[in-house]
Amino acid sequence: MSTPPPDLDELWQPVRLRTGPAWSLFGVWYRHVRVYCKTLLANITPPVLEPLFFFTAVALGLGSYLAGDRSFDGLPYATFVASGLIAASPMFTAVFETTFGTFVRLMFQKTYDAMLGTHLRLSEMFIGEMLFCATKGAVFSTVVLLITMAFGVRPTAWCVLVPAIGFLTAYLFAAIGLIVTSYVKLITNFSFFTSGVITPLFFFSGTFFPIRGHYAWLDAVSFLVPLTHPIELCRALFKADLNGATAWHLVALATWIAVCHLAALRRMRRRVLG
Amino acid sequence: MSSTSDAPATPLVVARGLTKRFKDVTAVVDASFEIAPNECVGFLGPNGAGKTTLMRTIYSAIEKTAGDLRVFGLTPMKDRKRINARVGVVFQDNNLDQELNAAECLLVHALYCGMDFATARRRTATLLEWMGLSGKAKSTIRALSGGMVRRLMVARALLNSPDLLILDEPTTGLDPQVRHSIWALLRELKRRGLTILLTTHYMEEAQQLSDRVLIMDHGQIILAGEPNALIETHLERYVLQAAGLTDLPPLDGDVRHERAGDADYFYSNAEPPLQELHRRLPSRQTVLRHANLEDVFLKFTGRGLQE
Questions:
Q1: What is the rounded CA–CA span in Å between residue B179 and residue B202?
Q2: What is the ipTM of this complex?
C-alpha cells in the first residue's frame, strides 16, 4: 500500500452534519431512486405496459361491445376503467417494491444492515422507503392518466390531483407490503399475497365494473376494502364532483394509511432488530 | 480525551454481564469487558461463538437481552443516533449496493451519515484515492475483486470520521497480499487515533493487530489478554507439530505431548529436546515452531471439531 496522501487529514476535520429526520429520509429516498434509475427501462416496463394493455383490451376492446350511451357510475366506460387503472397502478408499483424488493434487500443484499451501521433510525429507513414508493405512485398514476388521455379519455381540471392520490395510494400499499414482508420467511410465499390478495383487490374493488349499488351488504364490505377508496377518489376527480362521500373516502384512506404505517414500522422493527 | 496523563482514560465501551438470547439460542452469555480509547481489540472465536452478535449490540443493530452496555458513555438503542454518528462498521458480508458503482455507494452512505452533497463527494474522492480505488470509481460493485470490495467497505466505514471502527471478519476469504494490505491500513488508522474492534478466526490476524484479544466460545468470553502474554501464560514456548505418526517416540521429561485426531503436538520451553525429536521423526509434515495464539485458542476451545 502506498503512503497515504496528506489530504486524508481532511477526514478528521469536523463537519456540520444534518442529523434531523428530513435529511435521513432524503438519503434513503435518494438511494432507492438512484438504484431504481440504474435499470430504469426494465423498471418502468410493467407500470407502463400493463395498464396500457388492460385499458386497450378492456376499456376499448370489451367496452366497444357496450351500448355507447350507457353510463357507469356517471361516466363513459373508458373513463370509468381509466380512473380505476389510475388508482390501481400505484398499488402494484408499491406492493412489489416492498414485498419482493424489500425481501431481497433484507435477506440477500443486506441493505438494511448497512444502513443500521449508520445513525439512521429504523423508522427513517422504512419511511424513506415508503416515500420512495409513494413517489413512484405519483409518477405512474400520472403516466396512466396520460396514456388513457392519448386514447381519448377526457380529464377534468380536478385531475391535476391524480399524482396526490397516486402518492397516498402507493404509501398505503407500501406499508401493507412491509407488514406482509415482516412475516415472510421464504420469498416464494409472497405468491399467497400477490395472487390471493392483490389480484382480487385489483379485479373486485370497482376497477372494471361498479361493485356498489347492488346490495347494501356489498356496499358495506366494499367500504372496508382499501383499494376502493383511491378508485372512488379518482372517479370523483373525473366526475368533477367532490361531495360528502368523497370526504368519507379520503378519511377512510387516511385511516388505512395511519394504521398500516404504524403497523409496518412496528413489524419491521421486530423483523430487522430481532 | 483527558489531559491528565496518569488518570486512566475513560473506556469507550463498557459491558457488564451482557447477554443476548434469541428464540432458541443464547448467542452471548454474561460478557464483561472494557475497551480503552485507541485500543485495538480482537474478538476471537469459532463460527457461532457470538462475536458478530456482540458487535451488533454495540452499534444498536440488535437489542440486548440482559446486562449493561455503554458505548461512549451512552446507551445503545436509546442513543443510537449519537453513538453511531461516531462509529464505522465494516460488515462480514458484502452489503454494498450491487447496482451502484463504487463512488455512488460511498456517496449514498455519506448522505445517510448526514453529510451534504459537497462534503459527501469530497470525502468519497479522498477515500477512494487513499484506498487506491480512484480508477474504479465508476465500476459497479460486481466488477470489483474481493479485495477491492473489502477496501471499499473500509472506506465506507470511514466516511463519517468514526472514533470507533468495528470490523467483522475483515479479511475472511481474501488472498495474503490483500490481507496484509488491510492490516497495514488498520495499523495506520490506529496510529491516527481510532479505536478498533475486530472479530476474526484468523489467529495471525489477531496477533498482528490486537493489543488485546478476547477469546469467545459458545457465547462466553473464556480468555482475555495481550496475545503474547496469553501464549506465555498458558503454553510452553515451542511446539513440534507432527501428522500421521504411527508410534510415539520416547519423550524427554519436560516435553509435553497432546494428540488430536491424527496430529501430535509436543510442547517444551526449551528448543533442543524438540529439535532432537524433530530429527528422529520420519514424517515430512513435521514442523517445529513457536507456540502461537492458535495453540492457546485450541487448548481452550478444544482441538476437536465443534458442532
A1: 11
A2: 0.92
